Amino acid sequence: QSNVCLTSWRIKVMDGNTAIYVEGKRKDLKDLHWHSNAVVERIARNQVKTSSGSVYLLQGNIDSASMRKEGFPYRFIKRFMYGFSKKWKEYVEEFLAERRR
C-alpha cells in the first residue's frame, strides 16, 4: 500500500457531518488536487490512514487560510496546525457534534 503525499493540505467535513477527510495537492501527480476517504486512524503527527486503507503523508503545515474561508473556527484549525495530535478524534468529535446541532 503506497503512501499518498499531500501538500497544502486541509481538513474537510464529509456530508452529514459524520467524519473528516483530508484534501490537498499531490506532488507525484503534478500538484493535482486530491482528496482522501474518511480519516479513521492517526499513524503519526503527519500520517493518517483512511477508511479505504490508504496512508496519507501530510507535508508542511495545514492550509489554515483556506479553512478559515470555509468557516472553520480558528481554535479547531489551531489544533491541527502541525498535523494530527493524539487527541485528534476528540477534537473532531466535538467539532462535528457542534456542526450537527
Automatic annotation (TrEMBL):
It holds the Pfam family SANTA. Residues 4-91 form the SANTA domain. InterPro entries: KNL2-like, SANTA. One of its GO terms (cellular component) is chromosome, centromeric region. This is Mis18-binding protein 1. It comes from the Eukaryota. The lineage of its organism: Eukaryota, Metazoa, Chordata, Craniata, Vertebrata.
